[in-house]
Structures are given as structure tokens and as C-alpha cells.
Amino acid sequence: xxxxxxxxxxxxxxxxxxxxxxxxxxxxxxxxxxxxxxxxxxxxxxxxxxxxxxxxxxxxxxxxxxxxxxxxxxxxxxxxxxxxxxxxxxxxxxxxxxxxxxxxxxxxxxxxxxxxxxxxxxxxxxxxxxxxxxxxxxxxxxxxxxxxxxxxxxxxxxxxxxxxxxxxxxxxxxxxxxxxxxxxxxxxxxxxxxxxxxxxxxxxxxxxxxxxxxxxxxxxxxxxxxxxxxxxxxxxxxxxxxxxxxxxxxxxxxxxxxxxxxxxxxxxxxxxxxxxxxxxxxxxxxxxxxxxxxxxxxxxxxxxxxxxxxxxxxxxxxxxxxxxxxxxxxxxxxxxxxxxxxxxxxxxxxxxxxxxxx
Length: 358
Description:
This protein is mostly helical.
């Protein structure tokens, strides 16, 4: 998609919050080039994912007892630039409440400078992530697009080529993970609203007052000097107020469950269906390895925290399923009160005792 064809004028406060075209253009430049994919290879990948998401739907339904209502699951094999564009649109929708607040407050500095500065930050971040992501279920898509899954074709092809992975098997493995996310939200009506509520709660606490912000920065500096342990969640954690930290913990716990459940399901269903699963796991671990400088950046943006969510969450899910069966674990979807805390994710027996009574 040519950047000049993108229409960012959504008529919302968020559309005026940042220079989204600059973010889009910068992100595309930073995304860089990947290995060449021929038209035939691209068409084959589209056909594969179209078939594999349908196959995954049935496998996941039978294994978990969960199914998604609404539109059928569909795959969009996209370029890095298309992934950036789709996520910028999603970010606009997500940030609307904060943007509306900002328009009621007189902020220091020139508005155009702020818009450009925010665009550079957003574009830089998405440009970097666009080189890493293989697949995505966009939680906050408009209702008409429900069931749409993103697969970043160049990254999939590059990973298959670099680690010599069998394409069909690798694509099934990826599809299982993303379709599981779709099923989680499709089978749990309250889940999307709960996450949206957490996001809105966080944005409602963002300080727009300069004096309050300075006090927050001073507190963060004091905590850093006192030796506060922030390394597991990223340096930005120090900037959060106590209220924001509570929201962050709740968000982290639900994301750990979602990612851990998707990893558990994909790995269990891959048994006997995906050749050399151990090699695929090693390949993804190797793909995450990076230079010291890049690891520092990943920690700063919370990238390492997301990887840990997979591991901690999968341990929780596996332990609960072993102890109470799939039906016992599925109680987690019955009500938001059944979601585990971070302490329960670390010690699943606490959750089993509280929710299952085991």
C-alpha cells in the first residue's frame, strides 16, 4: 500500500493527536527490507493460511470445548507496511479517550511539535516491532472486521528460510496460536470489554498537568536511587503512579493468561501434526536473541516482559489443566472474578484453591 493513499482523517480527537502520516512513513522506513518473496510464494502462503485458520478453528474447538461466535475466522497475509498501517488505525481508536482529554487542556509548547514528536515515537516503535511479529489477533478491531487475523508474510518467509523450517507445519503452528486468541475473545463476551475498561482506566490516570508530571518524575528518580526493582517490567514502570501500577498488574495478569493459554493450546495440538516441534521452538528462541544494545531497547519497551508472559502463563495453564482438567481451567472464562492474579499465576495452586476448590 502506498503511504500517500492512507487516509488518517477519521474525524476523531485521536486523528489530531499525532501526525499519523509521519508515523506511518517513518515506521515503513524503519521496517526495512526482508527476503524477496515471489508472487507464487505469496499466493501459496495466502492459500495456506486461509486453509490453516479454518483447520485450527476445528482443532481448538474440539480440544478446549470453546468456540467463537460471529464471523468466520479469516487470514490476512500482509506486508510489514500494511501491519504498521493496521496497528496505527487501531492505536487511534484506542487512544480516543486520552485524545479527548488532551483537547480540553492547554498543554505547553507548540501543538505541531507535539504531534510530530509523538509520531516519531509511535512510528519508531511500530517500525521495530513490524520486523519481529509473525501473527496477530487485533483485539480492538471494528465489529465488521471481527475474526480477521494478521500474518506478516515477509517475517514468516524469512523465519522459514533462516531456520529451514517446513512451511506448512510452521504456518499451522502459528495459526493455532492466533486462532486460539480469536476463540478466547469470541467465546468470552465480557473479555474484550474488560480489557478496554483497563485501557480506558489507565488513560484516565495519565497526568496532563505539568506540576503533577514533575512530581511523578521526581518520585520515579527517588525509587530508582533507592534500588527499586523495575528490570522485569521495563523502566517505564517507575513512572507509573500507584493507581497506574495496579492497573498494570491487572493487565499483565490477564495478558499472561491469554498468551499462556494460546501457547499451551498451540503446543499441545502441534503434537503429531507438526514435524520437529522442538526445532521450531528452538528457532523462535534463537530468533529472539539480539545484541546487548537491542536487548536494552527490548527491556525498555517491555518486549522481554511479553516473552515472559508466554512462559509464566503457559506454566499456569498447564498446571491447572493437569490438576483440574480443561473444564476446570475453563472456569477462568466464566467471570472476570475468576481471572488469576500475578501471585496465582506464579503459584497456580492458589487459583485452584480459590476458584476450583481443589
